[in-house]
Amino acid sequence: MSSVLPDLPASRTEPDGSAVVRVLSYNVRSLRDDRAALARVIRACAPDLVCVQEAPRFFRWRKHAARLAADSDLVYVTGGATAAGPLILASLRAHVERTADVLLPRTPGLHQRGFATAVVRIGRARLGVLSCHLSMRADERYAQGGLLLDRLAGLGTPHAIAAGDLNDRPGGRTFRRLASHLQDGWATAPWGGEHTTRPGDPPQRIDAIFATEGVEILACGVPQPLPGVTDSDLRAATDHLPVLAAVRVPAT
Known about the structure:
Elements: E1 12-13, E2 19-27, H1 35-45, E3 49-53, H2 61-71, E4 75-79, E5 87-90, E6 95-103, E7 114-122, E8 125-133, H3 138-154, E9 160-165, H4 173-179, E10 183-184, H5 185-188, E11 207-211, E12 216-221, H6 231-237, E13 243-249
Parallel strand pairs: 2-3, 8-9
Antiparallel strand pairs: 1-2, 2-13, 3-5, 4-5, 6-7, 7-8, 9-11, 10-11, 12-13
Helix pairs in contact: 1-6, 3-4
Pfam families: Exo_endo_phos (PF03372)
Keywords: Endonuclease, Hydrolase, Nuclease
Organism: Streptomyces pathocidini
């Protein structure tokens, strides 16, 4: 499914001090695929903020995170091994006020999960950011959804974004829990493609961008109609498709 919106709004600062911000969410599968294709996709999206999942978190993970940032014309903000995989990158447009990485309670035998979080200021707009990759097990995932909402509220910012790989679809308990408290980007302002699994895989929307009340979602979806984003690069970059949103954040 694709919407009829022809263009995704560009990053800009409005006369009233609000900021139009591009946010990208992307599961990069530990950079095991075509890194050049991945960097081309990210650069074509021209994001101000990138919430990464499955960032490298073992041997020389900081070096790999720094290289991904440099190849994408971005800077490393926080996350990686210290958040068990979620990572945040940003353009030079974002001034980082503070960061915190959080490890979540772990069920024995399952992967450690965590959140990468930051508070940034873009012009006069102040925004909390959280990158997540939730559990594949339903009960643990549901509990993590509650922790996500608590953590987002605890950032202490008037506006916030949460983005990531939910391992859940819109009809699932965890997805519905988040959507009952936050704006679901695709459901609010659909643009581009809906499903975040690659062509040939079962079509699912398991990656999403959410925003708190007061953030205006202008457009959100898989950036398949975006100039510079090719099907070949999307297939080669990783096993997920990215989600790109343009949001307007009020001045504070």
